[in-house]
Amino acid sequence: MTAKEDYDNLESLHERMLELLHHRLHCMEYKKRTEIFLDIVQEVESENHFPNANYAFDSGVMSLDLCRFIEEKGKHWVTEVARNRHIMWDGYYQRVDGVAERLKDEHPESFRYLEVKQRNNTMKEYWIFTKAVRIKKYGKKRLVIAYEREDLSDEPHFFLSSANHWESVKILKTWSYRWSIEV
Q: Residue ranges of the domains in the chain?
């Protein structure tokens, strides 16, 4: 929109070139939050101060590159995922909230009671369903569907972990170490 049909002199052309270069530089310097978070994790791993630490992060920073990097380091990750995330269920990909609704309606007995000790040493009650499922591009991951009310009347939380062998207690305890505020 700022382009002109004709430039009267080289000075105005020079100014326009500087505007475009400045804009291009700004675009190149801009990073998505997923890229910023990957950079942070790479730096933490390069320092090697926390060799036994796993990762808990929000779905907003989840990316295939991040998950693969963490797994390549021999570590695990836990994230809460959006309700519209598709998982392989009964032979085809379905939304995770639809799966939870069907389980709640057709097999409420599949949710078991757990008490999970949180990072602040409080106990939190959950009714949990867990299963290893396939996620497009990510492969086989551990899914945890967690309700906080015994009658399953509240909105469920959906967690994914790269640790297919972990029990749901460990996944939820690891999740409790996620930052409690947004930065």
A: 54-175
